[in-house]
Design a protein that fits this description.
Residues 16-28 have low confidence and may be disordered. This protein has a domain at 240-350: Neuraminidase (6 Propeller), CATH 2.120.10. The longest helix is centred in the N-terminal third of the chain and has 26 residues, at 2-27. The protein contains 1 helix and 24 strands. It is mainly β.
C-alpha cells in the first residue's frame, strides 16, 4: 500500500513540475523580451525628420516621423535577439544609416550596417563585421562612413564582467568599399563619435589617461573630448576644457564647429544620486554655460542643421528602474524647452 501511495505521489510531483515549467515558459518574459519602450538611439535630419528606436517585447523597431506629420512609419523591425543602434542621417538627409548587433555577445560578436534610402524607401545591407560596432557618422561630403568598433569581448579586470573593448575609429570608403583603421587607441570605451564640419577630423569622448603614472592616478582619470586629425591621428589633443574637474559624457558639436553641447554631472559634491544636465562650451571664448536644470538624467544631445535647436533625451526613471526616455527640444541657449511626443514610443513595460 505504501509503495502504491509513493508511486502516486511521485507521479503527482512529476506532473506538477512539468505543469509549472510549461506555465513558466508561457508566462515568464526573458530579459530580452522585457525590453520595452523608447530607447535613447535617435537622430534628426537636415529636414527635421526624426528617426528613433522603440522596443516592443524585446523586438527593436526603427520609426521615422517626418516634420509636420502626426504619424510615424515603421522602417524595419528585428527579432528580440537583435539591437538597433545609432540611427544616423547623411548631411543631405537622403540616407538613414543604422547598426544592428546581437544582444548575446557571449556567443559571438557580429554587427551590420544598413542604409535606408529615404526617397526609394529601400534598405540595403552595407557590410557585416565580426565585431561590436556602436556608432556611425557620415563625412559631410558623403564619401565615407566613420564608425567605432571593438573586436574584443572579455574581462577588462578581475572585478568586472565581460564587456567589449579595444575600441578604435574606422573609415569605410563608400565608393571603393574599403575599410581603413584610423586610430590605434585600443580604448576600453569610446563614445559620441562626431565628425568636424570640415571632414578632416573627428571628435570623441574617452578617458584622459595621458598623465597616469601609478595605479592611484587611474582613480583620478576624467573623461574629456578629444579631437583627432584623420590624416595624423598621432596629433590627437583635448578640445574640451582640460582643467574641468567633472567628466564629460555624451556630447555633440554645433554645425559651425564653434561650440560643444555635452552631458555632465551637475551635483558631484552633494553625495546624493547624481544629476546629469546639458552644458554648452564655446571653443573660442572658453566660456561654459549650464543649459538644463531638470535634476534628473538628461543626455544624448543632437543639434539641428541650422544650429538653432538642441534635441535631447530625458530619462524620467533614472536610478529608479528601467529607463523611461522622453525626447525634448530647446533653443541653443537652453530656453523654450518642450517635449516632442513620438508616435508608437509608449509601450507597456513589464
Amino acid at each position: 500500500m505504501k509503495k502504491k501511495n509513493l508511486m502516486f505521489l511521485t507521479l503527482f510531483l512529476f506532473c506538477l513540475t512539468i505543469a509549472l515549467v510549461v506555465l513558466g515558459i508561457f508566462f515568464n518574459k526573458t530579459e530580452n523580451e522585457k525590453q520595452n519602450g523608447l530607447s535613447n538611439d535617435y537622430d534628426v535630419s537636415s529636414q527635421n525628420a526624426i528617426a528613433y528606436v522603440v522596443y516592443k517585447e524585446g523586438k527593436p523597431q526603427l520609426f521615422l516621423r517626418n516634420e509636420g506629420e502626426s504619424m510615424a512609419t515603421v522602417v524595419v523591425e528585428y527579432d528580440k535577439e537583435t539591437m538597433i543602434l545609432d540611427p544616423t542621417f547623411s548631411k543631405d538627409g537622403s540616407i538613414l544609416a543604422y547598426i544592428t548587433t546581437n544582444k548575446d555577445k557571449e556567443t559571438e560578436l557580429i554587427s551590420a550596417i544598413h542604409f535606408y534610402n529615404m526617397e526609394k524607401k529601400e534598405i540595403s545591407d552595407v557590410f557585416t563585421d565580426p565585431s561590436t560596432i556602436t556608432e556611425i557618422e557620415f563625412k559631410p561630403d558623403g564619401s565615407s562612413l566613420l564608425y567605432l568598433s571593438a573586436g574584443t569581448y572579455e574581462n577588462y579586470s578581475p572585478i568586472t564582467g565581460k564587456r567589449p573593448h579595444d575600441f578604435d575609429v574606422y573609415e569605410l570608403n563608400l565608393n571603393e568599399k574599403s575599410h581603413v583603421r584610423k586610430t590605434n587607441l585600443q580604448q576600453y570605451s569610446i563614445y559620441s563619435l562626431n565628425v568636424a564640419p570640415s571632414g578632416d577630423r573627428v571628435y570623441l569622448g574617452r578617458d584622459d589617461d595621458s598623465d597616469i603614472k601609478t595605479a592611484e592616478d587611474s582613480f583620478q582619470v576624467k573623461q574629456r573630448i578629444f579631437a583627432i586629425p584623420l590624416n595624423h591621428p598621432e596629433e590627437m589633443f583635448v578640445i574640451s576644457d582640460p582643467d574641468r574637474e567633472v567628466s564629460i559624457y555624451s556630447f555633440t558639436i554645433t554645425p559651425n564647429g564653434n561650440e560643444l553641447i555635452f552631458q555632465s554631472i551637475s551635483n558631484p559634491d552633494e553625495g546624493d544620486i547624481f544629476e546629469y544636465e546639458l552644458y554648452k562650451y564655446n571653443l573660442d571664448t572658453k566660456e561654459e554655460k549650464q543649459l538644463t536644470h531638470f535634476g534628473e538624467y538628461v543626455s544624448d544631445p543632437v543639434v539641428s542643421a541650422d544650429g538653432k535647436t538642441i534635441y535631447f533625451m530625458l530619462d524620467k526613471k533614472f536610478a529608479k528602474g528601467d529607463p523611461d526616455y522622453h525626447l525634448y527640444k530647446m533653443n541653443i541657449d537652453g530656453e523654450q524647452i518642450e517635449e516632442i511626443v513620438l508616435p508608437n514610443s509608449k509601450v507597456e513595460k513589464y
